[in-house]
């Protein structure tokens, strides 16, 4: 845990932690635009609705009724769909548009000579306040802060506070306007970055907290008007030194600073390398967002703090700056550029980084933050909210030179609106402004998105009359649950299989279906359709296969492996070609580089072929979820110059992973090593003998409650009992080459030898099972638990048992065991009577 917050997190009350853990157990489902659970909150859809565009940047938005007011730095507006520089009208730094249609409101056209940084509305909607860097409005003096009539844009003359410098944030009640920025005077009176005036005539009020070391960027007022949350790029409030949180809560009448627990770990005013960028509020909570550069400041996501007692409700620890927050009745939307949410159950940090500039969270705590692995501030142990399935694609822009997209988010009950400098939304040109609507008011155009060729079904036929169809889930920008149907022989055919399943862009599991009863030797085509709850559909390519006429024999070794129920098993058969078929699960491996099937060498009693890597790889496109209990098993054959990585886990399917772990490799000395990261430190165990003798060897690496253990040729050769966990990384299993730098005696190149019979288990294998597997691979007959096929019929105390579907490689099944009630039968006997 990073220095500076470990003691703060350790001081969380036992009651708070118990409550957080209880919430984790009952975590809600993903929220999306069309949730299947009525109790789950609905986001707006990811449809980018046609909206007026601007030629610069929008910094602030406020919604009054059905009108969106947008302020920023721009000089023209143009209709949705119009290319830049066409169909423009003059709008100097402020405009208004209809939230239902997205069309510019022509009757509102005040003109400011400098950028508008902040907008706020009076509670009754009768006034619109604008603040910024401007000094004139419509050619007349207007020093940085004015009040307007929302319908006409006319200035309200009695309101003229005249702050000495920029106004960056405002919040208004019927009687008072609070504002902050980088000013040091209001009129002729001293006020340091924060002040309040009477709404009716701009008379300066007594509120005067002393903010030093920077500016105020954001304000929010508690529902009862007693507390004012203050955020920005400042060091101290009222002379208080310490953690420099850049977030303060003061009494709205006196400016007295109030204590709150999050100040111990939200410290965005340290060294000037961070800020609290936005504060939004609802009836019970305020939500503060932040950015950092460097590692002195801490918060890049959102912290939720109760208004009542100022205790922390949760902290959203996605990384990538957050610039603006908007709270609805059920959800919290953000604008920013998160690129990592892996420690709250969200998406991993990819290489290169992928930015999600518009996202949403539930308002309830839904889990506990796990340890940070990328060098960011570690908020491990705090509660976090649920990341929702809502990911519209907003691009970066060029106007500010900061390479950002949206800077602001606002809305009303039916719409969420984003403003910034982005140039495209959902891969279509749309500059600076965009609307998103609830599903009842949206076209619901965003459907399932297949990713690469993973959605193309993978076909195999190893049993006479059967075809196994495998595909990887698609994902959808605004729906978690998708429906799949498998079509055989033409798009007009009825589905032969349907299934519903959850997926997100970072979590796309594999699916499979076995199509049985087909004519031997016949040829069939298959296609997979994916659809979302609104009926939008995506279709895979069509692929074909000829049905096997004979059962491909299952080796004795494969039967031994399958008896121990691996999560994945890749026997490596001649028919695999470019894809290794998973005999136990749904995770076929794609071959890349020089990897290919070798027909000339195989393990005794196995399938007859092996995998020659030649420094290539075979990778699983399905992301695994940071297993801390597992076993990897394979056979390898290597010569003296064929050291390399055999199997491992990383965050890339091809190329070198930027983060990697859980690897078994032949080191530069020809010895076998098994390594994991344990809380940032490399832990390895290594055999004493070398194994690059051109013979087949069996290696099993296990991690779990029994520590790290390495087995070679049926015997344990190294262990480390104290290491029971690995890197908190969601990644991909892959065979062959990947990053090896930094590991002890790391080989200089990828593995170029042979692999066979690869398996992964979701538990540690016992020493006895490992010895059995080795013996089977040596050609010895090993007892295997029979696999019985039970009939569906039960007549009183009698149960139908069909022994013909049972298998036992070394003899005939002679009896079946039924838990507490034994069934005795010989092969083929029917209706055995259960003992009473």
UniProtKB/TrEMBL annotation:
Signal peptide stretch? 1-31
Pfam families given in the database record:
Laminin_G_3 (PF13385)
Q: What is the lineage of its organism?
A: Bacteria, Bacillati, Actinomycetota, Actinomycetes, Micrococcales
Name of the protein in its database record: Laminin G domain-containing protein
Cofactors (names): Ca(2+)
Q: Where does the Laminin G domain lie?
A: 600-784
**Where would you say this protein principally sits, based on its record?**
other
Q: Where in the cell is it found?
A: Cell projection
Q: Which domain of life is it from?
A: Bacteria
Species annotation: Paeniglutamicibacter antarcticus
Extract the Gene3D superfamilies matched here. Answer: 2.60.120.200, Immunoglobulins, YVTN repeat-like/Quinoprotein amine dehydrogenase
Keywords tagged on the record = Calcium, Carbohydrate metabolism, Cell projection, Disulfide bond, Glycosidase, Hydrolase, Metal-binding, Polysaccharide degradation, Signal
